[in-house]
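Hey, resending since the last one bounced:
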Amino acid sequence: MTGPKTNEREGTRATLRGYHMSASKARVVLDLIRGEDVTTAREILAGTTREAADVISKVLASAVANAVNNDAMNSEELYVAAAYADEGITMKRFTPRARGRAGAIRKRACHITVVVARLDEERLEMVRSARSAQATASRARRVSSSRRRADQTASLNKRENAAAQAAEDEALEAQSRDAELDDLDEVELETFDNESGAIHTPVEDLETDDVVDDSADETVDEVTTPQADVVEPATDAATTGEVETPEDVVASEDTNEPVAEATASDETTSHDDTEETN
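The structure tokens again:
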């Protein structure tokens, strides 16, 4: 004798009748969750992209709710005992075809049923151990991830603190340099020339008023000095023993010819005086 029929299995069931979908499409998804625990079945349905997955997930949730509310079962101890889809009413429609013929269109429907029951002790212990191991691995992953994020955050904070400290040190150095320059501006700066051994005062340290005054004095002296005060050395007097008169100086300044004539007349006079003496 065969086992119990599908519709006679023990457990809590939920049925969706007359859904507009072919039974063959629904059976493809039902085969994926049959015999799995409720948690695993939900994960499988959540990762399936078929249209039937959304509908069957609602039917499964309804079956679990019926088991919890009506039969006082624990949702974590349930599994999918049976899942099947029966054909429903098929609506016949027609579409025009060539040469006056008609093409049949069959709009199929199905009845989806999901039955959930409590796991036996042996299988329930296996499921619990698997869930515990999964939870431990998940916790280890979370801890490692948290530590990795913490290390990254600490490294980032360390780099930021180092950059901030470097910027602060640079600012302090700049302030100290500015203070030193301010102090040097108040005191006269002098530079020593190693080659000549002389001390040179920078041009910037000289007072502009003194430079302007000296240049102005020199300019005034050059302009106000009279030409008559210039005394030329009497070179001719030393050689000839005679003193030049102011008229001779003026004549020599104007032209050279009168000076030459005067010199010749003087020589003739002196020669005549010498002859008379003899």
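The beta strands are 12-19, 78-87, 91-96, 102-107, 110-118, 191-192, 199-200.

Sorry for the duplicate.
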